[in-house]
């Protein structure tokens, strides 16, 4: 039996029967793995607590990664990065719910992707330790596209349009799937920055919604099977 110990980020947890959970994790060493946690909802004195498996919780797992099916089991779990503000802030909780849905949809490979893992891990720690986070999800998604292979080509950033389908700047005409004007200016303000510069961006609620819709459309065009997150409406309500 193959036993591994790895850091992991919880992507989703679905109730299975009355007492168990099926938990999808993005592990540092083996990519996406899905685990059956039997009886976790039944016993208060059990080995594992349901709180370990909240969206985007960072844990250290020892797992049996051998199974005749697709579900594996966990031997040990501990939280390695306890959040101090994410679970007490409605805004941060909503962002986490939204991003966990996006990541569960996007990350499918059962293989190591250490660069992507470190990006997600570091971004979540930043979210937990900062208060100005209204634009966090926008920058998170845009910078996530770098690890997925379709970050915007900014070599001709001075041009008057951006082609969502080609991922590059062009001279704006009347083509479909090209953003220009005010929408383009809003989009460009996110390019090339990191989270520490996020407070330099001042979007009102309408602008924030516009840019989020642009980024979602960009992902839909570049990721086969990408689904618009169900939690998008909740996110937009919180930020309105």
From TrEMBL:
PANTHER family: DNA REPAIR PROTEIN RECO (PTHR33991:SF1)
Entry keyword set: DNA damage, DNA recombination, DNA repair
Job of this protein: Involved in DNA repair and RecF pathway recombination.
Transmembrane spans: none
Domain spans labelled DNA replication/recombination mediator RecO N-terminal: 1-83
InterPro entries tied to this protein: ARFGAP/RecO (IPR037278), DNA_rep/recomb_RecO_N (IPR022572), NA-bd_OB-fold (IPR012340), RecO (IPR003717), RecO_C (IPR042242)
Pfam family, one: RecO_C
Lineage top rank: taxon: Bacteria
Gene3D superfamilies: Nucleic acid-binding proteins, Recombination protein O, C-terminal domain
Biological source species: Tenacibaculum polynesiense
NCBIfam families: reco
Protein name per Swiss-Prot or TrEMBL: DNA repair protein RecO
Protein family membership: Belongs to the RecO family.
């Amino acid at each position: 039996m193959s036993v591994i110990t790895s850091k992991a980020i919880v992507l989703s947890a679905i109730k299975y029967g009355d007492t168990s959970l099926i938990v999808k994790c993005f592990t540092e060493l083996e990519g996406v793995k899905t685990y059956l946690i039997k009886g976790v909802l039944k016993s208060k004195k059990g080995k594992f607590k349901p709180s370990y498996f909240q969206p985007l919780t960072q844990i250290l797992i020892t797992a049996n990664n051998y199974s005749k099916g697709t579900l594996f089991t966990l031997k040990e779990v501990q939280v390695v990065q306890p959040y101090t503000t994410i679970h007490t802030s409605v805004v941060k909780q909503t962002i986490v719910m939204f991003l966990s849905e996006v990541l569960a949809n996007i990350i499918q490979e059962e293989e190591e992707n250490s660069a992507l893992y470190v990006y997600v891990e570091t971004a979540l720690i930043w979210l937990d330790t900062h208060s100005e986070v209204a634009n966090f999800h926008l920058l998170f998604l845009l910078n996530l596209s770098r690890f997925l292979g379709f970050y915007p080509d900014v070599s001709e950033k001075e041009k008057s349009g951006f082609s969502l389908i080609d991922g590059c700047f062009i001279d704006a005409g009347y083509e479909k799937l090209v953003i220009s004007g005010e929408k383009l200016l809003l989009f460009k303000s996110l390019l090339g920055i990191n989270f520490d510069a996020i407070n330099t961006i001042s979007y009102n609620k309408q602008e924030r919604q516009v840019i989020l819709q642009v980024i979602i459309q960009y992902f839909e065009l570049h990721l086969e099977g990408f689904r618009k997150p169900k939690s998008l409406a909740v996110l937009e309500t919180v930020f309105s």
